[in-house]
Automatic annotation (TrEMBL):
Residues 371-423 form the PAS domain. The keyword S-adenosyl-L-methionine does not apply. It holds the Pfam family PAS_9. Residues 90-313 form the CHASE domain. Keywords: Kinase, Membrane, Phosphoprotein, Transferase, Transmembrane, Transmembrane helix, Two-component regulatory system. It comes from Rhodopirellula islandica. Its main location: membrane. Its EC number is 2.7.13.3. PROSITE patterns: CHASE, HIS_KIN, PAS. This is histidine kinase. It catalyses: ATP + protein L-histidine = ADP + protein N-phospho-L-histidine. PANTHER family: HISTIDINE KINASE, TWO-COMPONENT HISTIDINE KINASE. Signal peptide: none annotated. It comes from the Bacteria.
Length: 735
């Protein structure tokens, strides 16, 4: 198999393993946790074992150190005894003072702590006993005697013993050979000619307090010039013993002071570890039972010392393995557990993230497919052609409307260049851009025909290439409709001009005959004077009133025709000052009250139309009030996009059935001759405010006054001021 073939297989294998790991991530995490916990347990055991091995080595070293210390200390005591033997052998007779001087100069207790003293026990035969006792008494010890009393073949009375204090004086004259344990040690020393340790004894120096078990170390002294090669010869030649008594606890305390502070041990005489054979217990005095101790390390060592076998039982104290050493294995376990849990959480998190990613990928794939289907459905059902182009500007998709508009089949459309669909080239964008442009181009059908279209192009980059989506809208029908609209606008402009001409004729040409009729009536009344009958005079006055009403009607008709069509410039208007000026020009009864309430805003608006509306509303409230002492209040409310001007009075009110009719042209609620009203004031206000995007509202109840609310827009919607000029200009550029 070649390398090129093995790479895909390896890649597929890795992918399958990754899929398997993702599918089994939970079990894998638990499996790895179990393995890591096992590794942590092994590491903890190994570290604990290592710490224990180190402690064991240290324990063995301390035990060996203690053994050496005991042996060295006993060897030092042996040297002390040999020094005493040398002193005795170097002189024919050593006095008590010389023995004391030797002891004091040697400073045994300072350099050899634990020794109770150094003495000399003389061997006295039975026939020499009395002479020996008398010689000691002659030295100043009148009460001296060999103890215990009784006849024996041989005595070994203690003669010299230093320090000769009160405790050692209790042993002065004691026959050690009379006691079995001491005698056995002394016989063994004679037989070997070497220092010998006795078994467990109670020293005669002991009192009732602080009783300790003890032992003695004997070194025999032989008569000079006597053969001592055999045991019998040594027995015959022995003259005494240089010895040292030991209180065991004092001795071991001195040895242990610099050793084994963290180890307890018990010394047994012989090989049996019984209470009777217990020579020393470092844990407590011999009078108490040793406490049970679960020691980490225990070792029993035999020790042969100067003809005597000891057994030493060593035990480590509870703190032998220090807290720091124990903390090492605990730290290993803790760190291991922390790493195990962290690894478990990481692997579990990876698994959860993998599952979440897969779920998210499936959902995104499903949503993408759904969006793709929706996009496909939208594009397929869209009435406008939709085309997708690749970076080379070739068609990669076209919806059914595209095929219908351009006359291509699906197979013919895909791969077609954009230059075959549009007369002009499309605007290009940088490769990294993502934007939308609008343009108007001529499109080319498959049969060569063209049609105008407005196109919207959206560019984006999918990471590999720049793509473009084009939405094409055929504007052939729109252009036809636009032409009709322009034609209608021209016709409306012409109609408006005709209306303006009619209004001008109505207000000027009709006003001249009315003026002539009024003059004729005035002349008739002047010429006839009082000769005219009363009825005829009343008819003339009625005629003049009708002429005045007709003139007002013509003025209002002209104003209505121009409402909303004559504009001034937008300026900053102080509405409070505007209302105040209107109040100053009012013709009202003297008792009539007019006033303002609240805050009035300052805004940029058309001053003249606003002033016209407010003046007509205020005049309307005054003129239609049923009392001369009535009240008219003007207020303003800021409503965001609206400024609401409120004109309210306490007049007779308007019945609900008439409230919609008051805004109709030539509509008045009273008799035509009762007020000088043409019925067009509110119609003019309504037309004016609605022209600029506002509205007017009426709130009233019969007998409770009337409230007009003028909703004036904060932003003025300006109508076309010169529609016919705009249409003419547009028509001039059209083909």
């Amino acid at each position: 198999m070649t390398h090129s073939n093995s790479v895909p297989i390896l890649g597929r294998t890795i992918d399958r393993l990754r899929e398997f790991a993702a599918a089994r991530s939970s079990g894998l995490a638990w499996g790895i946790l179990a393995i890591s916990l096992a590794v942590t347990a092994i590491a903890w055991w190994l570290s604990s074992q290592y710490i224990r091995d180190r402690a064991s080595d240290r324990f063995l070293f301390r035990v060996s150190e203690m053994e050496v210390s005991i042996e060295q200390r006993m060897m030092e005591y042996e040297q002390v005894l040999r020094g005493g033997v040398g002193l005795l052998e170097s002189s024919e007779a050593v006095s008590r003072d010389e023995w004391r001087t030797y002891f004091e100069n040697s400073r045994f207790q300072e350099y050899y702590p634990g020794i109770q003293g150094v003495g000399y026990s003389r061997v006295v035969d039975a026939d020499e006993k009395d002479a020996f006792v008398q010689s000691i008494r002659a030295e100043g010890f009148p009460d001296f005697d060999i103890r215990p009393a009784g006849k024996r073949n041989r005595y070994t009375a203690i003669d010299y013993l230093e320090p000769f204090d009160w405790r050692n004086q209790r042993a002065f004259g004691f026959d050690m050979y009379s006691e079995e344990t001491r005698r056995a040690a002394m016989d063994a020393a004679i037989a070997s000619g070497e220092p010998t340790i006795s078994g467990i004894v109670k020293l005669v120096q002991e009192t009732e307090n602080d009783v300790q078990r003890g032992f003695l170390l004997y070194l025999p002294l032989f008569e000079r010039d006597q053969p001592i090669e055999t045991s019998a010869q040594r027995t015959a030649a022995v003259t005494g013993f240089v010895y040292a008594p030991f209180r065991t606890r004092d001795l071991m305390t001195g040895i242990r002071r610099s050793n084994l502070s963290d180890i307890e041990f018990r010394v047994y005489d012989g090989v049996d570890r019984t209470e009777a054979a217990l020579l020393y217990d470092s844990n407590q005095p011999l009078s108490k039972q040793p406490k049970a101790n679960d020691a980490d390390f225990v070792l029993v060592k035999p020790l042969h010392l100067r003809g005597r076998d000891w057994t030493i039982h060593f035990e480590s104290q509870p703190g032998f393995i220090s807290g720091g050493e124990s903390a090492i294995s605990l730290a290993v376990a803790s760190v291991g557990l922390f790493v195990d849990m962290l690894l478990f959480l990481v692997i579990g998190s990876i698994g959860r993230q993998q599952r979440h990613a897969e779920t998210l990928a499936k959902r995104m794939t499903s949503e993408f497919r759904k969006a793709q289907q929706q996009f496909q459905a939208v594009c397929d059902t869209a009435h406008d052609p939709i085309v997708l182009l690749d970076q080379s500007r070739q068609v990669i998709y076209g919806n059914p409307a595209t095929m219908d508009a351009f006359g291509y089949s699906a197979s013919e459309l895909i791969g077609t260049s954009a230059s075959c669909l549009f007369e002009s080239s499309l605007r290009t964008k940088p490769a990294a851009s993502s934007s939308t442009t609008d343009d108007e181009l001529m499109c080319i059908r498959e049969d060569g025909g063209t049609f105008p279209a407005r196109i919207s192009i959206s560019y984006w980059n999918d990471g590999e290439q720049q793509l473009a989506a084009i939405i094409i809208r055929d504007v052939t029908e729109q252009r036809r409709v636009d032409a009709l609209i322009r034609q209608h606008i021209r016709e409306l402009s012409r109609s408006n001009r005709d209306l303006d001409a009619f209004a001008y004729v109505a207000s000027h040409d009709l006003r001249s005959p009315l003026r002539n009729i009024k003059h004729l009536a005035d002349w008739v009344m002047e010429d006839t004077g009082d000769q005219l009958p009363a009825e005829s005079a009343e008819h003339l006055r009625t005629l003049k009133q009708c002429i005045s009403r007709m003139e007002q009607l013509l003025d209002d008709l002209l104003q209505y025709s121009r409402a909303g069509r004559v504009h001034d410039r937008v300026t900053q208007v102080d509405t409070a000052g505007l209302v105040t000026n209107i109040f100053g020009m009012l013709a009202k009864p003297a008792a009539m009250q007019v006033g303002m309430e609240g805050e009035f805003p300052t805004l940029r608006t058309l001053k003249t139309p606003l002033e016209t509306c407010l003046r007509n509303l205020i005049n309307n409230a005054i003129n239609h009030h049923d009392r001369e002492d009535g009240k008219v209040i003007v207020s303003a409310l800021d409503g965001g996009e609206w400024i609401r001007f409120v004109v309210e009075d306490d007049g007779p009110g308007i019945a609900s059935r008439f409230q919609k009719k008051v805004f109709e042209i030539f509509r008045t609620l009273g008799p035509l001759d009762s007020k000088s009203s043409s019925g067009m004031g509110l119609s003019i206000i309504k037309k004016t405010v609605e022209t600029y995007g506002g509205k007017i509202e009426l709130q009233s109840e019969l007998g409770q006054g009337t409230r007009f609310i003028l909703h004036w827009p904060r932003e003025i919607v300006m109508p076309l001021e010169s529609v016919d000029e705009a249409v003419a200009a547009e028509s001039a550029v059209l083909p």
